[in-house]
Amino acid sequence: MPTDFLSRIQDQSATVGVVGLGYVGLPLALAYAAGGFKTVGFDIDDKKTTAINAGNSYIKHIDAASIASAVHSGKLAATTDFSQLREVDAIILCVPTPLDEHFEPDLSYVVGTIESILPHLRSGQTISLESTTYPGTTNEELVSRIEAAGHTVGSDIHVVYSPEREDPGNPEFAATNIPKVVGGHTPACLEAGKALYGSVFDQVVPVSSTQVAELTKLLENIYRSVNIGLVNELKLVADQMNIDIWEVIQAASTKPFGFKAFYPGPGLGGHCIPIDPFYLTWKAREYGVHTRFIELAGEINRAMPTHIVRRCADALNQHKKPLNGSKILLIGLAYKPNVDDDRESPSYELLDRLTDQGAEVDYHDPYVPVIRPSREHSHWAGKPSVEWNQATIETYDLVLISTWHDSLNIEELATWSQQIVDTRNASATLPPELKTKVLKA
Fold first, then answer.
1. Using alpha carbons only, how large is the chain's radius of gyration in Å?
2. Which CATH number among 3.40.50.2000, 3.40.50.880, 3.40.50.720, 3.90.440.10 corresponds to the domain 243-440?
3. Ordered alpha helix ranges (H), 54-161
4. Is 272 one of the catalytic residues?
5. Exactly one of 94, 189, 272, 312 is catalytic; which is it?
6. What is the pLDDT of residues 52-71, one digit of tens each?
7. Could you tell me the CATH superfamily of domain 3-209?
8. What does residue 39 show for φ and ψ, rounded to 5 degrees?
9. CB neighbours (10 Å) of residue 72?
10. Contacts by 365-368 with C-beta closer than 8 Å and gap 24+?
11. In the chain, how many H helices and how many E strands?
12. Distance separating alpha carbons of residues 25 and 23, to the nearest angstrom
């Protein structure tokens, strides 16, 4: 039993280290600081660590005041110096797990991080991986390396897997009021994990192994991916039948049991849903299983940008304009409403496809004023959001709504625009005379 670690958690004398200060790691670090623990955030990006230490936020939905308060209280600090990991009692890994160009898992961030922390591990520490991944990753990538370095997992070092469950921009759920699933490599590891997360989370859900916890996270996101794929396919059918799929969903939602509403869109976005299902399909092949249902949903969702581009061409054709040479304004670069998170946003796919077909494309997003450098979309880095005003918007042949933020005014947009392709039903509240400008997609 990790008795010393448990007692340090119980009396709040433990120091918690969070590696990776993005959309998952930063809220988690703030939660531990608010819970009374000295917390150290680690990141290779010195812009993030500098911002935190100055009490500033680089994520829209995270208030700078909460960061400043935690820093000024002495409970939170950030650093790029990984040697300081020797001083922490718990190490929580919140690093990306993307796909490579072949839609196969890319664990380079996980492997690179564990390799970088190995020289600084000491007896008595608990390590938790929160990055979404396939079942077996914790054992194969973390436990094996830690034991190869001379430690005994379950004795002097404890290893757990606890998948993140962040929903950026959702005011109903903060980091600590979402139940926390935890699986340990050994029973002693599980006890350490339960103590670590139970100290700040309202509810901890222990499971029998790290593999169960890993698959739990995948199931959650595959469930969403499959249902979004279903409604996207139904949308294509409804369009051909001249039926408003949004009205259909609204009517079906009145059923008080057996139905949960999912909504169509231009594709999948965010770090989870477009990526996580492929972690399971890749691992399943190792066992000779072909996950046809999951892969079909992925194919449908990945095909939606093609459908949207076709609808843009249809809208322009109605005005005797070709897609090639037209000026198009894309509304919403973030992958979901009211956040600045543009990871895996289908808007980038739309930008690429429309540009490839000869359109001149700009975007407006109040939360993404300039496109940041990224591995996937480096060619768009530095492109600014255009201004929201009549003089600017009326110059475009077509406006494409990819993501709709509550702060935007749909009546202004419809009044100023020549025509609109709406993928999010943002135009539902428009008066009839303005709806004539809209083609739903």
1. 24
2. 3.40.50.720
3. 64-72, 108-117, 137, 144-148
4. yes
5. 272
6. 999 999 999 899 999 999 99
7. NAD(P)-binding Rossmann-like Domain (3.40.50.720)
8. -130, 135
9. 10
10. 365/331, 365/332, 365/333, 365/334, 365/403, 365/405, 366/405, 366/407, 366/408, 367/60, 367/334, 367/338, 367/339, 367/340, 367/405, 368/333, 368/334, 368/340, 368/342
11. 16, 13
12. 6
- Residue 307 contacts residue 342 (beta carbons within 8 Å): no
Smallest CA-to-CA distance from 408 within 296, 351, 350, 331 is with 331
Same fold, 3-209 and 243-440: yes
Q: In this model, does residue 350 exceed pLDDT 70?
A: yes
- Which phi and psi (to 5°) does residue 76 adopt? -135, 135
Q: Which of 18-27, 293-302, 384-393, 411-420 has the lowest mean pLDDT?
A: 293-302
Please give the C-alpha separations between residue 332 and each of 71, 116, 134, 340, 359, in angstroms, as whole numbers: 33, 37, 31, 10, 18
Q: What is the DSSP string of 301-324?
A: HHHHHHHHHHHHHHHHHHTT--ST
Q: Locate the domains of the chain by residue range.
A: 3-209, 243-440
Token output for 273: 């849903």
Strand partners of residue 356: none
Instruction: Say if residue 406's pLDDT is above 60.
Output: yes
Cα–Cα distance between 174 and 165 in angstroms, integer?
Answer: 10
Residues 60/339, Cβ–Cβ less than 8 Å: yes
pLDDT at res. 68: 98
Flag whether pLDDT at 1 surpasses 60. Answer: no
In this prediction, residue 271 carries a pLDDT of: 67
d(CA 275, CA 257): 30
Strand pairing partners for 38? 15
Neighbouring residues of 20: CB distance < 8 A, sequence distance ≥ 6: 42, 43, 93, 94, 95, 96, 113
Closest CA to 399 of 441, 371, 370, 428: 441
pTM of the predicted model, to two decimals? 0.90
